[in-house]
Amino acid sequence: MLTIVPSYRNFAFDPSVFSFAIIAPLLFNEGQNASRLWIGRTLGNIVSLAIGLVLVTIIALGITVHWLFPIIPLALAFAVIAIVSPTDASAVNAVNESTPLAPEQMLILSNESLFNDAAGIVAFDLALTAYISGSFSATGAAVDFLYVFFGGILVGAVLGTLIVSLRAWLIRMGDDEPIIMVTLQLVTPLLVYFIADELELSGILAVVAAGIAQGVERDRLRLTSARMQMVTTNVWEMLSGILSGLVFVLLGIALPNVITSSLKSATGFGTLVLIGVVIYALKFLLRFVWSRFLVRVPNTKNRLNDAAIIALSGASGTITLSLAFSMPTSMNSSLRQALILIAAVVIIISLVLPPLLMPLLLPKPPVQKNGQHVWVRRMLSAGIDAVRANTTNRAEAQVVADTLSQQLILDDAPSRRHQRVLFRQTIDVEKATIEAMRKAKTITDDEAYYYNRFIDLNDFTADQRIWKNLWLRTRFTFHMGSMYKDLAKRKTRF
Fold this sequence. Notes:
By secondary structure, the chain is mostly helical. The chain has 2 domains: 2-361, Na+/H+ antiporter like fold (Up-down Bundle), CATH 1.20.1530; 374-493, no CATH class. The chain has 19 helices and no strands. It starts with 14 loop residues before the first helix and ends with a helix.
């Protein structure tokens, strides 16, 4: 909708702001939510997927893409593969809610998405530097990678520990107001990223390391109160949702210009879409082979199925999109727009396929006919029998027994249509009985009228339709108002 507004038609966003204001807080939040215990237990798989697979993917697919599509320079081919290499756990989490993954699979994928973001971003920066400078040295790139990678982790860990110590000191001094603690936590990723970037280290890796150090404080629950934990959790959930949504809003604003530019370019829109499809297919194939032979999921036997799940779960998302927009505006405009479109195609494919194909690879949960576990039904039945055996308070016992009976048959209740049919049959029998009693002079005409009226109102209420309940509440309100009005008149007269 914003693209319709004239002021947003040529929208441009400073690429450096993405890394500083969006990527850094998102990865800091992922880092503080990561489990240090399971990172240690799955460290081999994490290094294999987040570093080994990312580097092999960038080199192998970069060369392949440049060979298949010479219109993309080799350095930019490496850059675009580095953009789409980081995975996003959000798509896997969405599939996991409907068709649960094995806990071991979910932990590997979550921890991988935390560290391969950093590896992909470092590789992207190196490839982009090589393209802009026009020179590339394999030895120099390897040294720079190690310096930037491990230097960023070291600086982030030190700064994160110092900030945690500062918060602990403030708490010991009694200055633990949530507004102060939350502000310090929100400023942490920005401060850590800025210092690491000034030292020419990986600001992203520094932010991840600082987030892990921050997570130690949260896990121990010794430095902050329960109220503080609730406040920080809610703030970060809200901030993470806002930043993730903002990235895709910006994509929606910029995508029309990207598509328009690609339609006018010599490469063509169809060719760019084809490049995106080929990149995703090659990435999936390499990820599947790597997972089959170099990744071991604990407590599972079907390695082929595990490899397919891990390969399909390599979905690109917020980080990929942020990196695409992080390409400098100083480079060729049409080429920059083309690479953004290629990244958007890979993102769309990787987000659409997992929900469609993942349920085919995962075991279906057992279907329970009665809707409840057998032991729950037995417990309710025993409770009903015990309550009905109470002879002291029969009326109260009957109310409790009816309530438990409703819980017992809740999942086995008929459909709304069948329910209405049963209500109608019951009402017809009641009214026929009332008419027979009226004709037999057992009840008077007035009693029959009011009883029929009561049945109609009860049926009207039991239908449970929203408009009927609203109408009944409105009538009741006006009725009570008129009653109070008459009562006031009677009091004044009295």
